[in-house]
Design goal:
This protein is of the alpha+beta class. It has helices spanning about 5-15, 15-20, 50-60, 65-80, 120-130, 140-150, 160-175, 180-190, 255-260, 265-270, 275-290; strands at about 25, 40-45, 100-105, 110-115, 135-140, 200-205, 215-220, 240-245, 245-255, 300-305, 310-315, 320-325, 330-335, 340. It has a single domain (about 45-340), classed as Glutamine Phosphoribosylpyrophosphate, subunit 1, domain 1. The chain binds aspartic acid (ASP).
Length: about 350
């Protein structure tokens, strides 16, 4: 048994503290978590507690972080009620569901698919790109052909619910994607969901009992986007970045803004030079705001990060960005990130 695994197992066996850990909590502030430990799994957005549970199945048996994040994000990918990821994702303005995903492991291996249609689990295709090809990214028809050749089946991903939301949007928005961000924010505010808009992309990071990181990020992207648009989520360094010596970061929100500052890579680099995960996420948001403050009126952007000590931090542009994590001891934790703008 490797030394880290041994230490982790003896710690569990000898420490009553682990078992006395508080049950699930929802708190209104974010902070680097002092109860750091591993294995661990963290995800953007509160409903992804379910995704974390699937990842935890792998991690708690001593499995690899890479397997954990793939298993975890497949949960929202298959969920027809999650309108931001995989099956049931909101379509582009022409009614096509187009998916983006990427995955990265502890050795810097990574794979990505962009603008993939009719395949429910883009994350598993991204992993196959990473493991079975000499490439990092496949897009569109090429990604689809690759998926089909590797046994994935083609299916319609537009659910009646998403089709109805799209048709409503068409009636009022005159085929104009420029209004979408505002529209989606208003829709969610009306429904009392906290006004985060159409941003429920899952970015997940896991650290396994060897202390190794992997991450995965998967999305149907911005609702009613122009056909062919790709955001930050499948872009290594923007939507996700893993550096096994330092930590990992992921993002959610308007991808164009995240790409501009190479968001997740920027955050990992800040941690490399001594910032905590919370400080690093704040640096990312502040940099983006400085660059774009006149243009981001209705936008949300959130970052989530973890360092090698297992400390977790998150920061967002505005209120409403929730994240969830699980550490040894059984508790699902849900928190809302601190934010820059108080509106
Ligand atoms: N970041 C994703 C994108 O821009 C969507 C989101 O998280 O809202 O495609």
């Amino acid at each position: 048994m490797q030394r880290r695994q041994f230490l982790f197992k003896s710690l569990l066996a000898s420490s009553g503290l682990m078992l006395l850990r508080k049950p699930a909590v929802a708190e209104n502030k974010s902070a680097d978590d002092s109860r750091a430990g591993f294995p661990l799994v963290i995800s953007t957005w509160a409903p992804n507690v379910k995704a974390n549970a699937a990842a935890w199945e792998v991690l708690s048996k001593g499995g690899r972080a890479l397997d954990a994040v793939e298993a975890g994000v497949r949960v929202p990918e298959a969920d027809p009620d999650d309108t931001s990821v995989g099956y049931g994702g909101l379509p582009d303005r022409d009614g096509n569901v187009t998916l983006d995903a990427c995955i990265m492991d502890e050795k810097g291996n990574c794979g990505s698919v962009m603008f993939l249609q009719n395949i429910m689990h883009p994350i598993s295709v991204a992993r196959m790109v990473m493991e079975k090809t000499p490439h990092v990214i496949l897009v569109g028809d090429g990604a689809l052909q690759f998926a089909l050749q590797n046994g994935f089946k083609q299916e319609n991903l537009l659910t009646p619910k998403s089709e109805q939301i799209w048709k409503e949007w068409l009636k009022t928005h005159n085929y104009n994607p420029m209004d979408t961000i505002k529209y989606m924010r208003e829709q969610k505010e009306e429904k009392g969901k906290g006004g985060q808009g159409n941003h429920d992309t899952i970015g997940m990071i896991a650290m396994d009992s060897n202390g190794d990181f992997s991450g995965a990020c998967t999305t149907s992207g911005m609702a009613f986007k122009l056909h062919g648009r790709v955001g930050d989520s499948p872009v290594i360094g923007a939507g996700l970045y893993v550096d096994n010596e330092v930590g990992a970061a992921t993002s959610t929100g308007v991808g164009e803004e995240v790409i501009r500052i190479c968001g997740s890579h920027t955050i990992v680099e800040a941690m490399r030079y001594g910032k905590s995960p919370l400080e690093a996420c704040k640096i990312g948001v502040e940099r983006m705001y400085k660059l774009r403050k006149d243009k981001i009126a209705d936008m949300q952007i959130g970052f989530l990060a973890v360092n090698k000590k297992g400390e977790i931090g998150a920061f967002a542009l505005r209120k409403g960005f929730t994240y969830t994590y699980k550490l040894p001891g059984g508790a699902d934790v849900i928190k809302e990130a601190e934010c820059l703008l108080k509106d």
